[in-house]
């Protein structure tokens, strides 16, 4: 077995990021808690940590909106220990300029080179869009993870999307100019089929690998009376894709876009034999998402040989006391590394911390400022 490397964020400095004017943190390598009222800035702090791993915000990829109102720039700096080495990551964005991400003072030319080096999993109330949202949310879920450690996947996906766009433009031209050129379309079909094959295989592998882990987490947290399913849906499961493309040419020409391909893939999320979206209670949906994201954590850990940082935003909300205890049991296991959690209630937090019985630090947040421990 490969050795899983150790990583943690030692300190974080923030300047004018969202509602945080200026803050300096020194963190515990185990558990850190942001405590504060609604709107204090707890989620924004998690977002700052997320930013340093992904070179963009969790909620907003538009950098100008991450700058504190009426300011011109934001700066973030994180000091990490990663595989026994000190690492400093800084991110800065000034209105009208290109964002700058540096690793140990060296500016990245390509931001994608940074993705995956400091793996991280964020579990947030907005994950609910995975259940309630369109299939694009679920493809993003698959793509986001696999791209973190598999460059070929990311490259192939980008090439697929480019080819798809070209094919769609061609279909539009056929329609508008009332002609049809079978040979050109066939060239695109061939390219699409080749790229789609690579993506399909990797998505399938990913879903197959996380499913048993996900199910065991769900069973553990729910107490074992409910069964959940996760399955990968793709036209490529239905047989030869090239043949299918050929068969739906007339439909594509009429629709003026490509109606079949891995750009339509989806995940089927089930509770018992029914769609989670239709029948899951709020707590069941929350448990489902939590189990799914923790399975993602496991997968990422094995794929990158580093324990990702785990950000848990408001996770105990809407869960009954039994499930809360189970989650605490789960995340305090040795499989997890550094964890950040948020809570609005000191008593509730004290209860959680008492159960976790782990070395920890509390940061009391008010109006974007650290006001106490
Ligand atoms: N660019 C920005 N400039 C200034 N303030 C911002 C900016 N973006 C967001 N905010 C503010 O940050 C505040 C805190 O947001 P945050 O989501 O971190 O709160 P929270 O502590 O997580 O609250 P809750 O307990 O409700 O989840 C909000 O009032 C929001 O308006
Ligand atoms: Mg919040």
Notes on the protein architecture:
- The chain has about 375 residues and is α/β, with parallel strands linked by helices.
- It has helices at about 40-55, 130, 135-150, 150-175, 180-220, 240-245, 250-255, 275-280, 280-305, 320-330, 345-355; strands at about 5-15, 20-25, 30-35, 75-80, 85-95, 100-105, 105, 120-125, 230-235, 265-270, 275, 310, 340-345, 360-365, 370.
- It has two domains: about 1-120 and about 305-373, Rossmann fold (3-Layer(aba) Sandwich); about 135-300, Up-down Bundle (Glutathione S-transferase Yfyf (Class Pi), Chain A, domain 2).
- The strands form three sheets. The chain has a six-stranded antiparallel β-sheet, with helices on one face. A six-stranded mixed β-sheet has the order 8-12-13-3-14-15, sandwiched between helices.
- Helix 3 runs parallel beside helix 9 (about 280-305).
- The longest helix has about 40 residues, at about 180-220.
- The chain binds adenosine-5'-triphosphate and magnesium ion.
- Magnesium ion binds near residues 42, 313, 314 and 342.
Question: How many strand units?
Answer: 15
Radius of gyration based on Cα positions: 23 Å
- Counting copies of identical and different chains, the oligomeric state is single chain
Helix-strand string: EEEHEEEEEHHHHEHHEEHHEHEHEE
Uncertain parts: none
Please write the CATH class name of the largest domain.
Alpha Beta
Q: Can you identify the CATH superfamily of the largest domain?
A: P-loop containing nucleotide triphosphate hydrolases
CATH architecture of the largest domain: 3-Layer(aba) Sandwich
Q: Distance between termini?
A: 40 Å
- The helicity comes to 40-55%
Bound molecules: adenosine-5'-triphosphate, magnesium ion
């Amino acid at each position: 077995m490969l050795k899983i490397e150790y990583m943690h964020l030692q300190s974080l400095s923030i300047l004018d990021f969202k509602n945080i004017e200026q803050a300096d943190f020194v963190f515990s390598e185990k558990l850190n808690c942001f405590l504060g009222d609604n709107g204090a800035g707890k989620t924004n702090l998690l977002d700052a940590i997320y930013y340093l791993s992904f070179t963009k915000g969790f909620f907003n990829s538009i950098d100008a909106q991450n700058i504190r109102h009426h300011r011109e720039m934001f700066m973030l700096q994180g000091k990490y220990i990663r595989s026994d080495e000190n690492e400093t990551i800084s991110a800065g964005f000034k209105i009208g300029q290109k964002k700058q991400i540096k690793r140990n003072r060296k500016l990245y030319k390509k931001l994608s080179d940074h993705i995956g080096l400091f793996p991280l999993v964020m579990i947030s109330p907005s994950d609910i869009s995975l259940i309630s949202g369109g299939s694009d949310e679920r493809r993003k879920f698959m793509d986001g993870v696999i791209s973190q450690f598999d460059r070929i996947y990311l490259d192939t996906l980008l090439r697929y999307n480019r080819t798809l766009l070209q094919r769609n433009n061609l279909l539009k031209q056929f329609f508008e100019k009332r002609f049809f050129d079978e040979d050109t379309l066939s060239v695109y079909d061939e390219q699409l089929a080749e790229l789609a094959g690579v993506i399909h295989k990797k998505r399938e592998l990913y879903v197959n690998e996380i499913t048993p882990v996900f199910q065991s987490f769900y069973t553990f947290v729910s107490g074992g009376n409910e069964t959940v399913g996760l399955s990968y849906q793709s036209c490529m499961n239905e047989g030869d894709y090239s043949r299918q493309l050929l068969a739906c040419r007339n439909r594509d020409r009429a629709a003026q876009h490509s109606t079949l391909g891995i750009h339509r893939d989806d995940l089927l999320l089930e509770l018992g034999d029914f769609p989670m979206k239709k029948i899951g209670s709020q707590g069941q949906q929350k448990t489902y998402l939590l189990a799914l994201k923790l399975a993602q954590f496991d997968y990422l850990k094995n794929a990158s040989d580093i324990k990702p940082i785990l950000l848990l935003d408001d996770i105990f909300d809407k869960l009954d006391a039994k499930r809360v205890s189970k989650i605490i049991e789960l995340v305090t296991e040795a499989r997890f590394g550094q964890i950040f959690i948020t809570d609005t209630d000191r008593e509730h937090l004290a209860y959680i911390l008492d159960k976790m019985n782990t070395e920890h630090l509390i940061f009391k947040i008010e109006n974007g400022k650290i006001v106490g421990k």
